Amino acid sequence: MIAGKVLGQGVARTASGAAIPFTMVEPERSIPNLGEIGRESRRWHGTALRFREMANKGQLPNDVAKRAEFADEVLAVVGEHLRLGVHGFVVAQGHDGRILGVTTYGSPRPREGSLNLVAIDPEQLAGTPGDQQLRGIGTSMVAAASQIMLARGDEAVYLHPFDQEAALFWSHRGFGYCGAGGLLCVRGRAAVEALKGRCELSPDCGDTGDCVTCGRLEDTARVRVPALRATM
After folding, report:
1. Closest CA to 28 of 60, 2, 50
2. pLDDT at 197
3. What are the residue ranges spanned by the domains of the chain?
4. What is 4-224's CATH topology?
5. CA distance 25 to 91
6. Are the C-beta atoms of 202 and 211 separated by less than 8 Å?
7. Model's pTM, two decimal places?
8. 66 close to 129: Cβ distance less than 8 angstroms
């Protein structure tokens, strides 16, 4: 298990209805943590290779393989940053020790934050084989990073989406276009505060009904599902 400062708790739900609890952690630099990230990095890499082979055979959409390869690279970057003692990332970890997602963040200018890399466990990505895809991990990590940015006085958060699907995803969570090259952002402390909120996904998740609640530990028992949406 990754050790470090706990930033929040969450419960996600798979397409099959299974509830998956997870914890968001700001890892400390340690030999055990490096070992854990190295182990998970090998798993992510193996999945990315398998998905690429499937895509080459026409058994999997190419964009899924590309996002898996991107995730593989991001986790490797996080491992190297941790080894060098570079700070500024969040890890979402399942209670079984699996790393479900990672994000890196920084501060390019005074009072501004940036989400540099956001990646999900390739096995959990939408469009992957099986029914174990999780919804809400990326949103939860962004909320945790935004909370850190608020605490240090940032009043804007920027990100570059990986592709058009990612741009649509983030637009549903409050980000708008604000620069060349597809740059997205939220500006103003109230808007950044809304990002961190309690991570309740907006109704765009009606495509599968898989939603997540994260934040305070006592909030995580209530997982949003379609049957409950009308009463919330």
Report:
1. 2
2. 56
3. 4-224
4. Aminopeptidase (3.40.630)
5. 5
6. no
7. 0.78
8. no
